[in-house]
Prior knowledge:
Elements: H1 3-14, H2 20-29, H3 31-40, H4 53-66, H5 71-80, E1 83-86, E2 109-112, H6 117-122, E3 124-128, H7 135-150, E4 154-157, H8 163-174, E5 177-181, H9 194-200, E6 205-208, H10 218-230, E7 234-237, H11 246-255, E8 259-262, H12 273-280, E9 285-286, H13 290-297, H14 305-308, H15 319-326, H16 335-340, H17 346-358, E10 363-365, E11 368-370
Parallel strand pairs: 3-4, 3-7, 4-5, 5-6, 7-8, 8-9
Antiparallel strand pairs: 1-2, 2-6, 10-11
Helix pairs in contact: 1-3, 1-4, 1-5, 2-3, 3-4, 7-8, 7-13, 10-11, 15-17
Amino acid sequence: MEDEVRARVGLTAVAPPSDQWLGKMVARLGAAPVWEALVSGAPPPTGGRTLSEGLLRQWRRWAERSGEVAPDRLLDTSAEAGVRFVAPGDPEWPGRLDELPGGRLCYGLWVRGRGDLRNLCLRSVSVVGSRTATSYGLHVASELSYDLAGRSFTVVSGGAYGIDGAAHRAAHAAGSTVVVLACGLDVDYPRGHAGLFADLVAKGVLVSEWPLGHTPRNPDFLVRNRLIAALTPGTVVVEAGRRSGALNTATHATDLNRVLMAVPGPVTSLMSVGCHRLLREGRATCVTRADEVVELIVPLGEADPEETGPLEVPADLDRGTAQVLAAVTRQGVGPATVAANSTGNMESTMRALGMLAAAGLVERCAAGWRRPARRPKGRSVR
Length: 382
């Protein structure tokens, strides 16, 4: 095990993520010399620069903790629990995290699940919002996340109650999701999502900057939010009250030059005050459905141009069948959505989909129905 990775494992166990002083030190010197100084009880490797008593006390606390940490043993214990460590430079490391400022960098990630974190985040969107969501917010988050997952976008969120949970469940039903937690991956927080987390690792992953055994404190959630914003090219805020933590994620997204989007809500709803403020201040773009999110993310190179180009509708189709075909995307969409965007009648929509499938113009997929990459020649629905 190379010293740099071992040092990063140790740092996750003794120091809080995103500590600006330590982060800048690691960015400048590398993790190995910083960890070696901590373990040996040496002064901070600051090149002789005078430090405040507060920073020195902090360094001594970390040094004391480092004596109780054996990185190799921590890795072995984690592996037994199905948790792996992903460090910068590893094949699974998400490249977008390299864009975090030096003082906010990530030492490494603890990951659990069958999905590959880097691949999952290549085509992804963060969906965040209030824990005390309304029925409106839960409905919008579910529909939006399901449609995005059906288009092969990974939905990233924080695993909390409310909007986060709705987004994860819907995305898991149609595709994959990434859960960014503020605790060790052996700690189910919130406890009521233990079953959900166990299900999600089948296709997605759970991610944390903290090692096994860490229980979350309030500041940890705010630190976690920068990862949710950094992992994806865009963040959607579905519902957010005046002081919602989702607004903290929105600020990180803006600071990282990510696309920030917000869903409008009823003007009388306290749970939409934060979204409306983002829109009013011009910080976020208004979105109401997955199509609008994809339009904003695609220019950043997250989608294959061939997949998002104009979709042909043959001229020899009757009007109703043509409407149904026009409502089907290459990424896939559910039959209820197809019906709502075409005939408005489920029975006639399913009949048209059957005819189109027989002609090779649509095919079944995990999300429902999709357009094949290329239209087969010489076949007709007549």
